[in-house]
Amino acid sequence: MAQPPILSWEGLSLQQGARWLFGGPQPGEGAEPIDLHILPGDRLALIGRNGAGKTTLLKLIDDRIEADRGTRRVKPGARIVFLEQDPDFSAADTLMDFALAGDDAPAAHEVDAIAGQLGIDMATDAATASGGEKRRAAIARALAQDPDLLLLDEPTNHLDLSAIDWLEDWLNRYKGAFITISHDRTFLKRLTRATLWLDRGTLRRKEVGFGGYEAWEEQVYAEEARAAERLDAKLKIEAHWLERGVTARRKRNQGRLEKLHQMRAARAAMISDSGSAKLKLANDEEFKSKSVIVAEEISKSYDGRAVIKPFTLRIQNGDRIGIVGANGAGKTTLLKLLTKEIEPDTGTITHARTLSGVMIDQQRKLLEPDASVRDILAEGGDWIDVRGNRKHVQAYLKDFLFDPKLVDTKVGILSGGERSRLLLAREFARTANLLVLDEPTNDLDLETLDLLQEVIADFDGTVLIVSHDRDFLDKTVTVTLGLDGTGRVDIVAGGYEDWEAKRRKPVAPKAKPAKAEPSEVRASPSDATPGKLSYKDQRDYELLPARIEELEAAITKGETILSDPDLFASDPKRFANISKGVENARAEKDAAEERWLELAERVEG
Fold first, then answer.
1. CATH architecture assigned to 268-356+432-504
2. pLDDT value of residue 387
3. Are strands 462-466 and 434-438 parallel, antiparallel or unpaired?
């Protein structure tokens, strides 16, 4: 029998200032009130633009703020825990003091157990702790409380790749329900099974994980656009400029991704098989003439530890360079070396005479809250110089997914994500041919990330990016500099996944092994000759695609039935059976896809 929801909100309405964020005072005024039911085991992605009210909705679920209308019900005994995006450490002397504060504090030994796995010293002074240390401490406090419902607001911010992997593994084993807001597409795709989409005051739910969200979003917008056209409602059509722009941007990005792959292929031809310092060049003189940053055998050590071991790199005009690695591996040091902010211990760094850079730092300066958007972008005027071209400030706002009417809005009223987007808009307007981005994706919504990818792709210059956002790197960079913490710098053509693939690749033996006698050779499925399959493998290779399509159709059909908001109340047994069927179909589809991909790799050799 299906279990009752952990939490329900029915008829939820909330007013912020002069507008209704959710619902309205009367039916038909603004969006309809929100109904929300969170079930045991739910793994929900909460999607919406900056300013749509995502964090506000989590606070309403956690009962931190009061709604103007609506009824909130919580399953008796259920524990709800909120991992905030920016928790307040000001009252704590140490990270452990923060973790154990409050009436709902977890046991100290539970915090210690999780902190040990995350590699964080909870005795660290809270006032001097880094963003990554504070984030780990907040995660340790939240997970140690053994929640039935976990609310996660940008949980991967400030985490390095190893910590993100650990959190993903923990959440995969977690038996409770969670809702997460995140800009990390890889994190969302790997973990979520359903999506809550907050859009213009309306909350939609679909029983499909984030991997299917964008197709769903475009379907909804296309249906709305067709309805608006049928009604010949010009004002409604104008209201869709943003949505249509997002859809068009994604389609344009398909072409940009193809161009990115071509650039990576060209770069791969210049990088040695070892992926280390040496570059093999078809035309060395031509390559040198296009170089904007040349690092020759540079290294850097601190307190006797080699942070960067000697390596050589030539960065060409137009390169998009990603720098990845765990916290403390030397990413910031490498970035500072390449930008000549610090000097190497050995070797030389040479910049082209024409190189002129703009840096958007991880620790972004707080914008003056009383300044207007117009003040930030155009110093109070109507026009802004965008890389040498004059543009009206309201038109430029539109390019960065802002409603042009916000031009005179005070910065202090904007959400954190909107302020980050405003800062990006200001910095991208500056004339430069080197763009340095340190963790640029923090606090950005998914549509702004699409925009950022587009702007980077169209940038007429060189880009250096430090980021833990795997999907962002895969869609943006041509070369990845991977740091494993030993001081070695791997140079890999491609993005994060290409670097990971290189790390997973076994090292070939230096000496060729003796040839086995014919009588000693044994064949097995795991080491079968590439391109040759057994009868069973060949059958699977041919038949699995059709089976995968059948499973996808079954999942879609089941999700359509489950999307009926009245089904759970009217027929909980059917709801449970269909839910279980969809879950089983997903598991079978995942296994079938993995099996087919394994066979395809063998066929392709």
1. 3-Layer(aba) Sandwich (3.40)
2. 78
3. parallel
